[in-house]
């Protein structure tokens, strides 16, 4: 119970870590994005406020620069139009005594009519000469011709603009202009924007965390399944536990499929190993017992009898030779079950291979007439198989035909082509096989006539090897036989196009997989 709780805790902490990482990443990204947007809006709005203040300063400077002497109340007031004076004093811009045209022709009206703008004019000694409204922006010395300064008062930002006034007559410094912009709209805008962005950020973070949890859980859940299956198989290699269908078309589905295939292959290898050990222990028991019997007989009294000594030595050597062939055949059978790993891209020319095998066996068995009919097979016909394996299958079939031939020592081999398949037939005119035996001849160690097979040197593995090799290359092997008349074995392989053959050859050239010799 404690172990299970620890595992669940680990899995939960894994989900929490992944959710935290994903949520933190998204949150930081969103916060950075929000800060950037806030700064952009702030900068653009501030530029507008600076432009507004600059317009006021420029208009005042243009009016006051016509004064040649130091700015004073006596020369500043007359320089300003009546409408401007009234605005600076907080009075209505238009008087009953002024005409409409004179009132609105004044350029300062539009510049300083904004309630956020407070303007003040100072002389060279920093003494106030003129101001509008109840709030007078304070003066402080500055070196530049003009200067902008942001200050914070009562939680709001205020823009102060300082401007030196030079006389257009003699270019002398006559005074200073100070404009204070309360930026009411800017402060309200940025405050509302900040509140909105904080609220949106909180909502977005919550949504991101929930979404991240769902997404991460959706990813971690199948990983937990895979981990559980891996632990079960690790505890019991013979376990049939497999990852269930994830029903998702993504990399995790592919990974689960690959793991299941790997586990199937691993268990297949375990079964092969068990079967190999079982077959070896079963089949070697007889020859070992025979050799042991002869040796015991020789040890007791047979070594003094030359005839018995000679017979025992020959029998032992014969059994030893049979053991050697048996072990080789079992190794071949085991390797034949790993074709898709060792020979995934091999391509073989059927015409050349069949012709070569028939010619070789005809030379080895001159007492047999081995005929070849390849008229229906184009010379460039290719199938996906390692050439050594196709040779081995043909040798097994022709060798069997020779072993079980009777009076008519003739073997017919034919090869032909259909639209999608290549067919190879090996026919003999020997003993034939009963219908009952035809169903079993491809089983391991099955022999139709055990006594005669032992005389001919067979172990009952040849057709099993042939069947496994053909099946590994997605082909088929079948038999038709009539007792007393002979047998006909038929091989069928899928035909591949020239384009696919070229692709497989190229892949085979680039492959570095080791090839084991099965011949």
TrEMBL record:
Pfam families documented for this protein: ArlS_N, HAMP, HATPase_c, HisKA
All residue ranges annotated as the HAMP domain in the record: 217-271
Transmembrane segments: 21-41, 193-220
Coiled coil feature spans: none
Alphabetized CDD domains for the sequence: HAMP, HisKA
Entry-linked Gene3D superfamilies: 1.10.287.130, 6.10.340.10, Histidine kinase-like ATPase, C-terminal domain (3.30.565.10)
Gene Ontology terms, MF aspect: phosphorelay sensor kinase activity
tRNA-binding among keywords: no
Keyword entries, A-Z: Kinase, Membrane, Phosphoprotein, Transferase, Transmembrane, Transmembrane helix, Two-component regulatory system
Primary location: membrane
Protein name, entry field: Signal transduction histidine-protein kinase ArlS
Species of origin: Lactobacillus helveticus CIRM-BIA 953
